[in-house]
Amino acid sequence: MDCIFCAIANKEIPSQIVFENDNLVAFRDLNPQAPVHILVVPKMHISSMNEITSENSHITAEIFEVINKIAEKENIKDSGYRVISNCGEDGCQSVKHLHFHLIGGKKLSETLS
Fold it and tell me: What does the record give as the active site (predicted)?
C-alpha cells in the first residue's frame, strides 16, 4: 500500500508532529489554510469515513478527544476552530486515509466554496 499518512505515522516521512499516541498522530499541514492547520490521523489505515464500523469507531471518538486537547494547546479552543473531514471524490478527499483537519487561529470564512 502506498499511503502517505501511513508513511508519516510509521516515521518513514518526516513531519511536524504535534501529538502522538498508540492510535493517532497529529501533524502540521504542509499547505496550511490558516495559522493553525493540523491533520489528525489514525495510525490504523481506514480509507475514509465510509469505513468507520463498530469495530473501529473508538478511534473516531479518540480523534475528537485529541482535537480538543490540541485546540487548547494551540490556543484556539476559546476563539474557535473548524474540524473538516472530506470523504470521497465529490467531497475532495485527496488522501484515501481517514483524517481530520483542525483549522483555526483566525476568523474563518462562513462558506466552504
Answer: 99
Region class of 60: left (phi > 0), else alpha (psi between -120 and 50), else beta:
alpha
Q: How do 36-42 and 100-104 pair as beta strands?
A: antiparallel
Residue type at position 80: G
Q: What domains can you pick out in the chain, each with its CATH number?
A: 4-104 (3.30.428.10)
From the list 37, 97, 99, 101, the catalytic residue is: 99
CA 103 to each of CA 35, 44, 89: distance values in angstroms, whole numbers, following the listed order: 8, 23, 21
Joined together, the cell numbers standing for residue 39 give: 491533520
Q: pLDDT tens digits for 61-113?
A: 999 999 999 999 999 999 999 999 999 999 999 999 999 999 999 999 998 76
pTM of the model: 0.94
99: annotated active-site residue: yes
Q: How far is CA 80 from CA 7, 23, 54, in A?
A: 31, 26, 30
